[in-house]
Each structure stands twice: as C-alpha cells, then as structure tokens.
Specification:
Largest sheet: 6 strands, parallel
Helix content: 25-40%
Bound molecules: adenosine-5'-diphosphate, magnesium ion
Structural class: alpha/beta
Mean pLDDT: 96
Strand order of the largest sheet: 3-4-2-1-5-6
Order of helices and strands: EHEHEHEHHEHEHEHEHHEEEEHEHEHEHH
C-alpha cells in the first residue's frame, strides 16, 4: 500500500514535526562533522516545508548516548551545518521536550526552522515510550518521516509519534522506498545481485529474498567462505560459520532447482592475518593453506563477476567482497565496483560498509542509487516491513 507524501497534506501554517537521520560521522578529536551527506539528503524536504510556509520542527538522533545527555553528542554543529545548507537560521534547542521547547514552538512564524536536541538523550526514545511520544506529538500538527536510515526501528520519533499524528513520507523516504521497492517488484532483467560482507548469518534474509527475484546472485566477502566450506573446500583459518554450511548448501540447491545462477568464488586472496598484508597470496579455492585466511576474492573471480555484471540491466549490491578497509584486500571490492559503475545497468548500493567501499573507490557519482539506510535498506531488501514506514498514512 502506497503511503501518503507531503503533497497529500496541508502544510501551510502547520507545525510539522519531522524526523530526519542526521547521524553524521564526526572527528573523534575535534567533534567536527567529517561527512555531511546525511544532512544534505534531508535538505530538499526541509526546504519544501519552509517554502510551503510550515513551522518546521526537526528531530534526529546522533550516536548512541543511551538515554543520557552526552555533551559531545549535542546537535549544535548539525544545526549550524543545516543552516548553511538551507540558507536560513536553524534555532537549535537544548532540550528534546519540556517548557523551553514548548515556548520556542509557540513563538514560531511560518517558515521558521527549529531543531530539538538529540532525541536519544531521553531513555524513552528507544523504548518507544508513549508518554514521550505524546509530549513530542503535542509539538506538531503533522508528522513527516524522512529518516529512512532509522525506519527499521520502532522508536518514539520514528514510530510512536506516528501513532498520534497523521504521518507522511518526506522526499528522501519516498525516493528510497520507490527505488528499492521497484527493484524488488519490477526490475529490468537481467537482474543481478552481489552480496558480500562478513557473515552469512547477517545476510541470509537478503540472499533468500533476492534469490527469488534475480537471474544471477554473486557471493563474496567472508560469507563466501561458508559456501565454499559447504562444497567441501578446506578454508584454513578463514571466517567460516560452521553451523551455517547446511543452510548454504540448501541455498545452492534451491538456486539450481530454480535455474538461477549462484556464483561463488573460484579463487581467493589469502593471508596469515588481516594485519599481515605482506603475507598475501592468490590461491584457487581448492588450495587455501591451513594457516591462512581468505580476505578477498581473487582475480579469476573478479573476471567472472565482472562478466556477470556487464550485461545486467539492474544490479543490487550489498556487502564488500573482502576486507576492503585494508588496501591489500580491497582489490576485489574496487574491481567489482568499477564493473558495476561501467555497466549500463541501473545500479543500487545499500549497506553501511558497502557505501563506504564505493566512496573509497571514488565511484559515488557512477552509482544510480546509493541508499542512505544501512540496516534499513537490508531489512527492506529482505522483504521485511519497516515500522517507521508502516505507521504512516496510506494513500
Ligand atoms: P554492509 O555494512 O555493507 O551491510 P557488512 O557489515 O555485512 O556490510 O560487511 C562488511 C564487513 O565485512 C567489512 O568490515 C569487511 O572487512 C568484512 N569482510 C569482508 N570480507 C571478509 C572476509 N573475507 N573475512 C572477514 N571479514 C570480511
Ligand atoms: Mg556493516
């Protein structure tokens, strides 16, 4: 069921309580914002609300203050950055709810923007405490959820408030859902998926759901080890989930029964340890030394995966092909990323580390949709319903 958007409700003169995901990375030493992509992503929605003459009250979390006030997690810098980006003042409050907040909201003119303090300073936020939800909801007339990155969490500001106020999607939420939703329901074929990352247990839902939709699924990263082990290969000291080999086998058999291509590595880059890149060597999957671990896909696998990507019309990618944080083991991820970028396919990348690996490879501009939601995009691709979306009004 499609959800209402901002265009479906009256906004002029209304107090609009909006949840964004401005949980930006910051420098550990200076606290400066090191990457403001998440703030930029919220700008269109906020500008639109201002143009409509709404009174814009922004909620976001930052970091994990665990229900306590943490000075370093106050939102002053975030509000400053947003003010620069939208070209108008953003009044940052020092409380999430209470008399100071109520007075500030009461004094707002149409088109004003205020930002509440970090919602996770209050323990009720992550508990989805309805008393807190009521206090927050009392600040607004309309609720806009634009925080796709936290839509998989049922917290006060992402879900509880939506039980009280009429809720609609912001532009970012709308875009994420329509792009990811279309990929799952009406992708152009050949449709290929690339799934990597560390563990099969984290990605099993994604693999199973995507396998139903795609023509070809490529497995890389640490989770490939479990598939290889399941096929009888010795994996040395690699990360292997022994309790998941039966599941891996089942997935491979299921893929075959459906006539789908499921590709797993044919060679690997192995080393004694992540910290010892000087010991790296390329081996076939049948020749992993007993004292080494697989840390990246090898060059033959890269070729195979590049080929599978080259004639795709749609590509979904989640999870790096290796330990991309270390240059010696980033080659597989970077090469596959390059192939995705070069292909004519509509390309979608989701997942926190996957997006970081695309940034590391400098290929952001070449990917059609980079999802702002890590965990949320994964759960969406698993076919799960996200509470922060479900709570919004149906069209
Ligand atoms: P995402 O955040 O994009 O969903 P994941 O969190 O599932 O991705 O996986 C990313 C992590 O997987 C990275 O930290 C990477 O170092 C790790 N990883 C990839 N390949 C391997 C491997 N062969 N062995 C151990 N860890 C790996
Ligand atoms: Mg991750």
């Amino acid at each position: 069921m499609a959800k209402k958007t901002m265009q479906d409700v009256e906004l002029t003169g209304k107090r609009v309580l909006i949840r964004v995901d401005f949980n930006v990375p910051r420098s550990k030493t200076t606290g400066e914002i090191t990457n403001d992509v998440r703030i930029q992503a919220g700008v269109p929605t906020i500008k639109y609300l201002v143009e409509q003459g709404a009174k814009v009250i922004i909620m976001t979390h930052m970091g994990r203050p665990k229900g306590e006030v943490k000075e370093e997690l106050r939102l002053d810098r975030v509000a400053e950055r947003l003010a620069e980006l939208i070209g108008q003042p953003v009044k940052k409050l020092n409380e999430v709810v209470g008399p100071e907040v109520e007075a500030a909201v009461a004094a707002m003119q149409n088109g004003d923007v205020i930002m509440l303090e970090n919602v996770r300073f209050l323990p009720g936020e992550t508990d989805n405490d309805m008393e807190l939800a009521k206090q927050l909801a009392a600040l607004g007339d309309v609720y806009v959820n634009d925080a796709f990155g936290t839509a998989h969490r049922a917290h006060c500001s992402t879900e509880g408030v939506g039980r009280i106020l009429p809720g609609v999607m912001g532009f970012l939420m709308d875009k994420e859902i329509s792009v990811l939703g279309k990929a799952l329901s009406e992708a152009e074929h050949p449709f290929v998926a690339i799934v990597g990352g560390s563990k099969i247990s984290d990605k099993i839902g994604v693999v199973q759901n995507l396998l139903e939709k795609v023509d070809c699924l490529m497995i890389g990263g640490g989770m490939a080890n479990t598939f290889l082990k399941a096929k009888g290969y010795e994996m040395g000291t690699s990360l292997v989930e022994d309790d998941k080999t039966a599941l891996a086998l089942e997935i491979m058999q299921h893929a075959e029964a459906m006539g789908k291509k499921l590709l797993i590595p044919v060679d690997l880059t192995v080393a004694a340890a992540i910290e010892q890149p000087e010991t790296a060597q390329t081996v076939g999957v049948d020749a992993v030394p007993a004292d080494k671990m697989a840390l990246d896909i090898g060059p033959e696998t890269v070729k195979l995966y590049q080929q599978a990507v080259s004639d795709a019309k749609t590509v979904i990618w989640n999870g790096p092909m290796g330990v991309f944080e270390v240059d010696a083991f980033a080659v597989g991820t970077a090469s596959v990323a390059q192939a995705v970028a070069n292909s004519g396919a509509y390309s979608i990348v989701g997942g926190g580390d996957s997006v970081a690996s695309i940034e590391k490879a400098g290929l952001n501009d070449k990917i059609d949709h980079i999802s702002t939601g890590g965990g949320a995009s994964l759960e969406f691709l698993e076919g799960k319903k996200l509470p922060g979306i479900e709570i919004l009004q149906d069209k």
